[in-house]
Design goal:
mainly beta
Length: about 40
Amino acid sequence: MKARNSIRSLKRQAGSIVVRRRGHTYVINKRNPRMNTRQG
């Protein structure tokens, strides 16, 4: 899981869901796990 400056570009990936948990923003992608990221 990588931390990115901008997760906006990852929202466009197929199967991506943006989730906010405990003050962190995550992109969860079960179709392509390489796109899993955390911000914050």
